[in-house]
Each structure stands twice: as structure tokens, then as C-alpha cells.
Known about the structure:
Chain A is an alpha+beta fold. Helix content of chain A is 31%, strand content 29%. In chain A, the strands form 2 sheets. In chain A, strands 4-5-6-11-10-9-8 form a 7-stranded antiparallel β-sheet. The termini of chain A are far apart. Mean pLDDT of chain A is 71; it is low at 59-110. Chain B folds into 2 domains: 15-98, no CATH class; 113-181, Arc Repressor Mutant, subunit A. By secondary structure, chain B is mostly helical.
Amino acid sequence: MKKEMDALTEARAYLGLFRPGPDDLSEPDIRALLDAELEKEDPDTDLIEYCLDALEEPLPLLPARRASHAPRRALLIAAAVVLLTMLGAAAAASAIRPELWNSLVRLYSDTFRIGHPDKSGTGGYELGETELALRLASLGVSPVLLPEALTDGTCTVDSVTGERTDFITSATVTFSSEELRGTMFIAVYAEGAALPVMDYAGAKDAEPLHTDRIDGFIFSQGDGVVIDFSDGRTVYSIVIDSTREAALDLAQGIR
Amino acid sequence: MNGVRGIDIGRDATPEEIWRANEEYVRRICRYRLCGHPDEADDAVQDVGTAFFAAVAAGTEIREPKKWLTVVTANTVNAVFRRLSAESERFVPDPETVLPFVPAPEEPEPVSENDLLRCREAFLATLSEDEMELFRLRFVKGMKLKRIAEKTGVSENSVKQRIFRLKGKAKRFAREWAEEDL
């Protein structure tokens, strides 16, 4: 009988190895551990693999996103995050409006994660008949929100490229003027494909961005500025090589 | 247990076999460190492979290929960072990184009690004395981290890292074991 009890205890103990618990390292802890190990002259390759495994495990999401009909898919897409360099996000957190807060999956010292809300587009695409919008439509990206500066001659559109997969249609627009250069990434997610979760780490001065047409985020990175927002199942990211004021001007003209 | 990714492929393995066994491991590191730059990550993997075969051709003795590749990968990635910095490139959300759709995995078959028992026995047999002691203290006796730290004379953070390592080992072992035995 004692032997059976011991075996049972050991079986439960063994299963404990697979359960999350208070002794689990946090994601930043794992990243720090991994980065430190990668810098060693005699690295522990097993530890490196454990860290990579742990980081590639599905990420926890907000309850609202858990309610999705495709939670597993969402989790997997969530794992395919983009890392940007970003600092000071925590300071911006208190200024974030509740509805935007809902789109933040997690926030810690130098990283925040944006889970773009899966909701209907708000309509009203005023620049839908412009040459750029029509070029994007020919690539399958339509309807689309655009900065007016890209359509009224303020900026020159240098290139428009597109790519289509079964679930995502994307386009990249590069543009420039005498004052700035920039790139606009647009990705349209098909019904059934989860919207991406984006991690931004190590940049600075992140803050919510509200205009008449969009709600998103703006932050500085290096000498440039990034604007991130979504509209329905279309996710936008605009990177410009200029000042925050110039980026805000550009954002105000999005329609 | 042989067959774990990138490990234990034998002393007589050819350079090609060694590279094939470790390429995915190198790729995972590159993709982790160069997240946001998938093309750079792929290029870095190729650079590491080229460096490996060049070293082999030059007669360099590589006693622990995986460690050697880890160090070369870290150096290669650091060189990419320096170059990107010099070119004033920034991390931008490259659609390539966000876009690929990953199909949902199939639900795993339920594991029978017998399979679980065999896996557990096999796993426990791989543990070192220190690992077994940690397993007993934390998971059999349910001792708190602070108490384990006091008992073993190491910091609480160190205990946490050891548990992380033990859990990682268990998960990796179970996955490999399932692939081989089930």
C-alpha cells in the first residue's frame, strides 16, 4: 500500500513539472537568461533550447481574446510577434484610454504588447479613389486608410509592393519628401486568421494616438517614429525617418 | 536518449550530418535574436553554416559542435546588429515576420497511464543527483522556493532557474520520447 502511495505521489510530482506555477520564470527573465547564455564562451546549449522552447510556447491573452472562436490559432499567431526596440512604455501606460488599454495584452518594464482588436472597420475611406488607393486595391488591399500627404503630392510615393498568402494580403509603400522618408506596412487578415499580437521593446515615449479617424499608438525609435493602428482586419504600421511632430501631422491626415 | 534536436549524433558523424542536426537550432537562435529581420536571420544561418564548413575544411578541431555553433551564431548575430546599427537601420515590423499563418496543431492523442509511467521512469533515470533532489524537494514534498534555497545553500533566484531548467528538460524529454516511442 505504501509503495502504491509513493508511486502515486511521484506520478503527481512528475505531472507538476508540466504545470505552470509560481516558480516559473517570467518572459523577461527567460529572455535575460537566454541573452546572457548566448554571450558566454562556454554556453549551456540545453539551457538555450529550454529558453527557446519556453519563449515559443503559446502566450497568454486577455480574456476578451480568449473568447475568440479560434483561440489556438490566435495563440499561435500571437507567438509570431514582431520585436521593436522601445523604452519608456510603462510611463505611457497610465495615459492610455480604457478602450485602448483593452488592446494591450501585457505591459512590463520596457515592453508592451499590442493585440489589435478584432472588430469591424469603421468605414469612410475618403481617399479610396486616389491613385495610390487604386494601386493598393489592385494588390488586394482595399478598403484602405491613407495619410493625405501620400495622395496630395506632399510626399512622393517611391514604391508600392504587395504579397498575398492564403490568409493575409499585404502591401508596403515607401514614400519621401524633402523633410522625411517613410515606409507604410499594411496587412489585411482574412476572416478566420487571427490578428497579430505585436511586442514592442526598447523604444521610447510611447503614447496613445487619437485622431478623428484612428486610435493607435505612436512611439519614437532611434531617430524615427512609428505609428501603429488597425482598422477592422487591416493592421497598419507607418515608420518615418523624422520628428514626432511630422509623424503626428501625417497621422492627422489619415482618412 | 539520442535524437534530441542537435544533440548526440555520434562521434563519427560527417560535417553535413552535424550541420543538418544543428541547423534548426541555429535558426531558432537567429530568429530569436533578429526578430523583425527574418531575411537577416536566414542570412545569418547561412553565414554560420559557411563558417562551420570553412572551419572543417581548414582542419579546425571542433570537439563540441553544438557549443561551437552557438558561439559562432552569437558572434554572427552580434555582427549583424553592429552592421544594422551602422547603417542606421531600425527594427520595423516586417510583414514577413507577422504574416506567415501557422496552422493549428492537431490535438494530441490522450496518453495512457502506462505510457505516462514509462515516460516518467525514463525521465527520472536521466536526472543527476542534484536534479533528483530538487525534484523531490519541490515537486514531491512541495517545498517552497525559499525553504529549498535555505536547505541547499543557494539563492532563491538560483533555485528558480534550476526549476526552470528541470521543467524544460522534462518537457523536451517528454516531447522527444513521445515522438520516438508513441
